[in-house]
Amino acid sequence: MDKGLHLYNTLTRTKELFEPLHAPNVGMYVCGPTVYSDVHLGNCRTFISFDLIFRYLKYSGYKVRYVRNITDAGHLEGDRDEGDDKFAKRAKLEQLEPMEIVQKYTLGFHDVLRMFNTLPPSIEPTATGHIIEQIEMIKVIMDNGYAYEANGTVYFDVEKYSASYNYTILTNRNLEDMLANTRELGGQDEKRGRLDFALWIKAKPETIMRWPSPWGIGFPGWHIECSAMSAKYLGEEFDIHGGGMDLAATHHTNEIAQSEACNHKQPAKYWMHTNMLTVNGARMSKSAGNGFLPGELFTGDHPLLDRGYSPMTVKFFMLQAHYRSTLDFSNEALDASEKGFRRLMNAVTLLDKLVPAAESDFEIDPIASNCIRAMNDDFNSPVVIAELFEATRIINIVYDGKGKISVAELGKLKKLVKDFVFDIFGLKDEEASNTELNDVLEMMIDIRKAAKENKDYATSDKIRVGLQSMGIQLKDSKEGTTWNKV
Ligand code: AMP
Ligand code: ZN
């Protein structure tokens, strides 16, 4: 039988029983977007995956504090503290203040996630709002002997840290190999070791986003913000730290190093990583130029798209894959998801129209426990969807009068749909929420009914056939006429 929630922990490379440090409270930190440009669909996949996790933890009775940051400073183009500051570069390009860039793309990010019906996090802290906390943390790391200053920039000393801790604990890579694969230090390099990374970076004369610090005017490195903000809002040790898989090797590896060098503790008990959305097998990313913007996907206005797909279709497409599997984008896959999603939503709209009988040909408990078991097995949403299609089949059979369902089983079926379709998956029926369409269709149905009563079959047929050609099917029964999108 079900043995409680198990999740895959990158740190131990196993599926583990989830045992929060301070149940029923759960602290979860997820690396948020770098808001220097529009989020692409790949980014959305990661945030939709953690929304599923957040929703299921809440459904399971935990009191979750979900912290998802906004990176609005310190993210340089190169992984090795080189290249332009992403915000400054974009600001120059758009002729805006860096903070206008941050504001513009933060709002855009929120708009997109709202379209996907994700829940807002409990706290959404920004890097620029926590400069003091980052400076304080760097000071402690230096006092503990794991960082050094060189000409106004502070570097984390990976070699020194590795003498007492395991720098590659998260990805289990070999440190020697990593060193061999990392470029040698150049003559200009201030770093002592090849793997050292910046905690604080000295401002150049042209740097706009700059703050005073004990080491002069500068700005924080990218990794330190997450260590400082997770500790501030969730404590030095918390339950879950998440992000996309691409962050594990550098950003999260460095976060662990910073937190341990500061607090002598592993920050998170469970590290969770979502897999990538790919296009023809290649990771979707801003730099590869294959990153659809969600808006382009909804309108279909992109060379790789045959047509547009609604936000819920796209979300359903994502939920049909497990969060740790790669998911390859294609028009065919989205077409299939659209059909599946409509089939599910049509059944959901029929639920309220089912007439219960004294007996039941169906039992809902096994379906519900299969769903729970799947979610408890590392949030296996595709298995839940297969179970929901079984529920869909039952709804259609009962609606077509080919099977019976009792009041009690119908109640369970309604609860199953509410819990999994709406509360845990966060799906919504875009057709049903289109109240204008609903109202117009109700009016057409009324006109058709009146026409039939007057034996004006030309009009009633015209309405039925006309709607059919628009993909709307009318169905007459004893209770009246209903409509379906086909
Ligand atoms: P960024 O704005 O680049 O810092 O990324 C925000 C989040 O999106 C991070 O957790 C990344 O790991 C994640 N991410 C980036 N590209 C993809 C992708 N193709 N598929 C899934 N997640 C991604
Ligand atoms: Zn982070």
Automatic annotation (TrEMBL):
Motif ('HIGH' region): 33-43
Keywords, comma-separated and alphabetical: Aminoacyl-tRNA synthetase, ATP-binding, Cytoplasm, Ligase, Metal-binding, Nucleotide-binding, Protein biosynthesis, Zinc
InterPro entries, per the entry: Cys-tRNA-ligase (IPR015803), Cys-tRNA-synt_Ia_DALR (IPR015273), Cys-tRNA/MSH_ligase (IPR024909), Rossmann-like_a/b/a_fold (IPR014729), tRNA-synt_1_cat_dom (IPR032678), tRNAsynth_Ia_anticodon-bd (IPR009080)
Domain Cysteinyl-tRNA synthetase class Ia DALR: 370-433
Catalyzed reactions: tRNA(Cys) + L-cysteine + ATP = L-cysteinyl-tRNA(Cys) + AMP + diphosphate
Intracellular or extracellular location(s): Cytoplasm
GO CC annotation: cytosol
Motif ('KMSKS' region): 283-287
NCBIfam families: cysS
Protein name: Cysteine--tRNA ligase
Protein source organism: Pedobacter heparinus (strain ATCC 13125 / DSM 2366 / CIP 104194 / JCM 7457 / NBRC 12017 / NCIMB 9290 / NRRL B-14731 / HIM 762-3)
